[in-house]
Structure formats: structure tokens, C-alpha cells
Amino acid sequence: MATEKEKGSSANILDWLASLKLTLFVFFALAAASTVGTLLPQGAELEESGLSAGTISLIQSLGLNNLYHSSWFRMLLLLLCVNLLVCTVDRLPKTIKLLRRQEDQFDSNKLSKFGTSAVMATRMSPQEAQPLLQNAVEETFGQLKDLGSSARFCGVLEKGRWSRLMVYGVHTSVILVVFGALLGSILGYKGFMNIPEGEASDQVELTAGAHNHLALPFQVKCDKFEVSFYDTGAPKEFKSDLTIIDNGKEVIKQPIVVNDPLSYNGVTFYQSSYGSMLKQAELELKDKDSGKTEVVSLTLQQTAAIPGTQDQIRISEFQDNMMGFGPALGVVINKPAKPANGSWVLADKPNFHGNTIQNYQIKVRNISKANYTGLQVSHDPGVWVVYLGFTLMLIGIMLTFYSSHNKLWACIENDGRKTIVAIAGRSSRSAPAFNEKFDELRDRLNSLLNAEPYKLEQTKPEKAKTEKARQEKTKAEKTKPGKTKEEKKKK
User: Fold this and answer.
1) Main-chain dihedrals φ then ψ at residue 328, nearest 5 degrees
2) Domain limits of the chain?
3) Residues 227/230/236/240 CA torsion (nearest 10 deg)
4) Which of the four pLDDT bands, split at 50, 70 and 90, describes residue 408?
5) Does residue 244 have a pLDDT over 50?
6) What is the pLDDT of residues 326-346, one digit of tens each?
7) Among 359, 302, 317, which residue's Cα sits nearest to residue 335?
8) Of 419, 426, 425, which is closest to residue 454 (Cα–Cα)?
9) Coil, helix or strand for 395?
10) Number of H-type helices and E-type strands within the chain
11) What is the pTM assigned to this prediction?
12) Mean pLDDT across the stretch 402-406?
């Protein structure tokens, strides 16, 4: 059984989780983090950004280059969800209790205390005045609900009663949006695929971190790639004909262009870029020491032995047109017990000084290239939750700000001499429009009932209260210090 101290601590924690201060803190923290995430490129290689080593270390330790997948950003989203959920659970029962509360009996004296009210007297009997009152209210506002009072007629009209719950609809929508974003941050991913024309791949290079790869449960094949250009040479449109192969079967064939993606099993492929990639290169290596010449054929990232030696060669990179000098190969040579040495080798310029690496003069004899399509890959399982949340938010906001809770009370009673008719009203929003209709109802009743304004007499408790206040005011004025003769002369 929990002690009083434990109960108090739990209550304090719940109060803190439901507090507006926590909501504002989390909102401002998320706004500041999102600003940083917008200004700092996400998923970029920081080593090539020109920043100092200390700055790079700080950014990586805080996860600022992968902000939306960082643990602390997810904790902020989770804290906002908990805050709104606890706030809703804490306040909703009180609102429901208020909605279920039965209307208490009232009289004309009680209604006269409302800011928007009218009390009038008529010579008609209560039985004659009641249908006239009900018809007038129905034509102006709506039908009155008779509370069944035996001493007097009491009627209530209420519209927009459930509008008080709309704020909780907005709370729920925000929770759905944040939960959807959290779901996408944890289970979703973004990346790129470069697929040569005529080939298929299931490998995605993720942008969440350096050299992270993901294997899709299906393959994407580029059947054909086309690009058209403007007269200036700028690309006009590039299109890829894609085929989705799942379990060895072709399930979808669809061309995609920019802003017209292909989606399959929750994964969306966008046309992002294009280019040429190396399929195979034939290199001629001349050993300047021995004068021997060898020919080696390589694919990208393939390592091969140089015949007759213990040396190895690898093509690490390829550029189709490096700085306007044409095709270039990044070649690396490894010698036993020596550090690797590499340089760019220009295919169209055999006399380029970079074509010499250590004791080898390298000449590109042949290059086999293939066009590739660059696809941006996105998977976000929380996107439909976010869409649902935004839809609910729009509906909730419209109902919250464009609907109002209006209530009207009406009472008929007899003071022994005349029939007293009292009406009062209240509106949570659009008070000027409500007051205009209320004045219309009052004037209509005055005409139908041939009524005149009626001033209610104060009850004995009210008279005593007023008299006591008058006596206290008189006593205070008597005890107030008077002005001296000198002050009176000056005046």
C-alpha cells in the first residue's frame, strides 16, 4: 500500500507532466532543434565540410548531422506525446462530468444577475404567457427544454454543448502527428540507389550515416534510362523505366520522372539523378625500372595483381568528366610492406603527370561505361498516421474556432400581482451576434406579452448585505482624516 509521501510524489510528477510550462519548453526545444536541422545539412560528410576537427566531433557527438534520428530528439517527441496525453486524461473527466451535470432549478431573481438578461412583467396569466414565450424563443434560437418545475415554468435551450470536447480532438491530433513522426524516425529510412541500365539491385545507401547500407526485400531493375536536354545543354527531363522483382517475379513495371515516384510495399522511389559509371577499364602499366609492360582489366573497386610482381592495383573511383578533362580513374597501387599510393589517371591525356604512380606509367587503353539512374529511396511507416493527425487537427480547429456553446434560460413565475417573465443567455464565442439575437427576442416578447420592464425587489439577505455595505462605507468616510485649517485656506 502506497504511503502518503509516495502518493504526493506521484501527484507532483503527474502535475509536472500535465503542466503548460512543460508543453512550452518542449515546443521551443523542438523548434530550436528543427532550426539547427534545417541550417545544418543532414547526412552530409562532415570531413569534406571544411569545419575544424573539434566542431565535427561536437556535431557528431550530439547527432546534429542526423538530428531527426538522434535519441534526444526522439525523447523530446515522446515527452510531448506524454505531456498531451496526461493533460488530456487529467482534464477530460472534469469536462465530461460538466457535460453530464443536470440543470438546477432557477428563478427570475437568479436570471437577472446574468450580464445578458431581461426581466419583464405582463398582465397575462403564466398559462397564457408560456406558449408565446416558447414560440418566440423557438423562432429566434430554437426549442426550449422544459425542466418540469412545479412552482414556475423553467426552460433551457443549449447549442454546441459538445464543442467543449473539441480541444481534446486537437490534443489527439497533435499526439497522432508527433507519434507518426516518432514512428517514422525509428522505423523509417532514407537513402539512394545507383542502378546501371539493364541491371537490378536491392542495395540502398542510407543517408543516416556514413557507408551504411540496407538490403531491400525485393529488387529494383532499371530497364531503360532516357535523358533529354535543352538547347543550352542543361538537362530537360530524365526518365527511368523500372521493374520491381519480388521473389523472382516481376510485380510492377512503371516509368518514373521527377515528382512522379513509384511506391511498393511502403517504399517510395524518386527520380533523383543520373550519370555514367565504370563497367570495366583496360589499363596498360609500364614499369619504368624494368621496362616491362603489362595489361590489366578491372572493374570499379576490384583489386587485381600486376603480372610478374607482388604489387596490386585497384580502381577506387571514377568520374565521367573531371573538371573538364574528360574521364578519370582513381587508381591505387599497393606494394608489399609499403603504404598504398594513388592518383587520378586521365583517360584522354596519356602524358598527364598524374598518370605515373610510383614506378608505373599508366595508360588507359579502353573504358567500358554504363549509364545509371540515381533513385532517392524513402520509407516512412508513420506518414499515414501524420496525415490522419493533420486531418483531425483541421477538423478540430474549425469546430473549436467556428462553433460556439450557446445557452439560453427562460422563466415564468407569478409574484401575486403580475406574471414575471425572465430570460438570460450566454455565449462562449461570437457574443455580439448572440446579443443581437437576444435583443431581438426581448423586443419580440415585449410586443407579444404587452410587457413592461420589471425591477425585482431585493430579498431580505440581499437587503441586509446592501445595508451592511452602506454602513461600512459611511463609517470609513467618518474615520477619514479631515483637512487642516491651513489646507482649507490654501484651497
Assistant:
1) -140, 140
2) 4-97, 102-160+404-458, 186-275+374-389, 277-372
3) -10
4) very high
5) yes
6) 889 999 999 988 888 889 999
7) 359
8) 419
9) helix
10) 11, 20
11) 0.62
12) 83
